[in-house]
Amino acid sequence: MSADGPDLVVAGAGGGLIGALRAAQSGLDVLVVEASEHFTRGNNTSMCTAMIPGVGSRFQKELGIEDSADLFAADVERKTKGTGDQRLARTLAEVSGEMVEWMADEVGLEISLMTDMHYPGHSVDRCHTIPERHGNALIDHLARTARSHPKIDFLVPARLTDVELDADGAVCAVIVTDPSGASERIETPAVLLATNGFGADHEMVAEHMPEIASATYHGSETSRGDGLRIGTRLGAASAYLDAYQGHGALAAKSATLLGWATIMHGAIMLDTTGRRFAKETSGYSEFGPYLAARPGATGWVVFDRRVHDLCQPFTDFRQTVESGAEVWADDAAALAEVTGLPVDAVVAELEESALAARGHVEDRFGREYEAPLEPPYAAVRVVPALFHTQGGLVVDEKARVVDADDRPIPGLYASGGAAAGVSGHGAGGYLAGNGLMPAFGLAYLAATVVANG
Ligand SMILES: Cc1cc2nc3c(=O)[nH]c(=O)nc-3n(C[C@H](O)[C@H](O)[C@H](O)COP(=O)(O)OP(=O)(O)OC[C@H]3O[C@@H](n4cnc5c(N)ncnc54)[C@H](O)[C@@H]3O)c2cc1C
Q1: What Cα–Cα distance (Å) separates residue 318 from each residue in 254, 282, 309, 321?
Q2: What cofactor is needed (predicted)?
């Protein structure tokens, strides 16, 4: 770090590490300020499934997949029923293909395109991942690479508590506070707020998204809305504060993610009446509030050996199975017994969904099936969850935080959960990857913009 302070302060070592690495590789002196000593095993990036959308990447082209910003923006438009931020969707689409290639070529991650499962809402396969398909491996690699970079310093644990603007309204310094309460002022012309959203602030969650407030919060305990509060105090605009990623398949027994690959490969979800209650393939996020509204706010994901085997590439799925959360039964009646669900309903749903999967009847919720479920059956009891919030500071096409008149606050950038995302309102607009795409994409973009002056 130079005597007159870093060129860029990155607050938050989740997706923010992408910004730190990109900026350092461009020759900038970077200071990463991170609130938690245990960030590699606690923040959202460390918990994720590592599905990173990259639009128009060479990994797609190698498989003959044509993708474009127009196609991604249209997917966002459809999933959010016209309410998603189109400027940001195009911005993220345009940067994301280049970014996943950079993650492979310059950061050294073993990136590949995921094609064995098609995430709901994406009209082409565009989620890139790493062999482990888990955030632990992803963040370990990012943190190790950043810590060994000569142009990146870390201040951990230390919390960004304020940002100062000069007389012209541009960023000139940050205030960081250590756990003892001691504060330090650090001069810098630029700061990236990568502090995630406000999922851990129960009052804010209850205010903005009451339908999911009683569900399990399965996200970082340090997502306290710091970026939103600091930015708002500086005059920034905020948007989509009711938006969030929910999930309908957190295993009740182990508090691990069962995962939606089960559903996409053909599993069904039953509530405690033994009945299906919505189109499972619409998306996992909306199943958070759907399940929260069912009797007892719990349900069962039912699948078979074929689905079980197809889900093996997912660390989360394997951990759920290893925890003992999965139960097996030889037929529908035995499944009802082992789950405690009403036998008539379970038998009827398995029969009906198998008929629909074979094309003999129309599915009553309009879903399609990869294949019919065959006995023996497996089931995992699931509960609804909130993973992270998707509303926050409004950013422009350069990841700059803007005010209510869309004027950038010079030197102030935001990414990930600290920024407003592209998921529109509520839970239903969330497309797979809408978490990491702005977390990594906006951090990458901010660093590029700062480096280019
Ligand atoms: C189980 C699970 C699976 C998921 N899978 C996917 C997926 O496959 N694809 C996808 O796109 N999204 C996924 N998501 C969502 C995704 O993980 C998040 O959207 C994304 O990681 C957010 O990144 P971030 O940088 O904003 O926040 P984080 O990764 O949480 O990083 C923020 C960091 O900021 C620190 N911090 C907070 N306040 C301060 C402060 N004041 N000063 C300094 N530091 C501070 C925190 O300690 C934390 O380390 C998943 C989420 C969960 C829970």
Answers
A1: 12, 24, 10, 5
A2: FAD
- Tell me which residue has its CA closest to atom 51 in ligand 1: 48
What distance, in Å, lies between the first and last C-alpha atoms of the chain?
18
Contact 164, 410 (CB under 8 A): no
User: In angstroms, rounded to a whole number, what is the distance separating the alpha carbons of residues 100 and 88?
Assistant: 18
Q: How far away, in angstroms, is 34 Cα from ligand 1 center?
A: 12
The tens-digit pLDDT sequence of the chain (453 residues) is 556 799 999 999 999 999 999 999 999 999 999 999 999 999 999 999 999 999 999 999 999 999 999 999 999 999 999 999 999 999 999 999 999 999 999 999 999 999 998 999 999 999 999 999 999 999 999 999 999 999 999 999 999 999 999 999 999 999 999 999 999 999 999 999 999 999 999 999 999 999 999 999 999 999 999 999 999 999 999 999 999 999 999 999 999 999 999 999 999 999 999 999 999 999 999 999 999 999 999 999 999 999 999 999 999 999 999 999 999 999 999 999 999 999 999 999 999 999 999 999 999 999 999 999 999 999 999 999 999 999 999 999 999 999 999 999 999 999 999 999 999 999 999 999 999 999 999 999 999 999 998
User: How many whole angstroms separate alpha carbon 158 and alpha carbon 177?
Assistant: 5
Judgement on whether residues 183 and 254 belong to the same structural domain of the protein: no
Neighbours of 385 (CB within 10 A): 24
Residue of 296, 230, 291 whose CA lies nearest to 258:
291
Residue 194 maps to a domain: yes
**Same domain (yes/no): 295, 148:** no
Contacts of 133 (CB under 8 A, 6+ apart): 49, 50, 51, 114, 313, 314, 315, 316
| 317 contacts 261 by C-beta, under 8 angstroms | yes
Whether residues 395 and 302 fall in one domain: no
Beta pairing partners, 216: 385
In a domain, 53, yes or no: yes
Residues lining ligand 1, CB < 6 A?
11-16, 33-36, 39, 43-45, 47-51, 159-160, 194-196, 218-220, 222-223, 226, 245, 257, 387-388, 416-417, 433-437, 439
Among 436, 442, 445, which is best to mutate for testing ligand 1, by the most ligand atoms less than 8 A from CB?
Answer: 436
DSSP string, 216-261: EE-S-TT-SSHHHHHHHHTTB-EE-TT-EEEEEEEETTT--B--TH
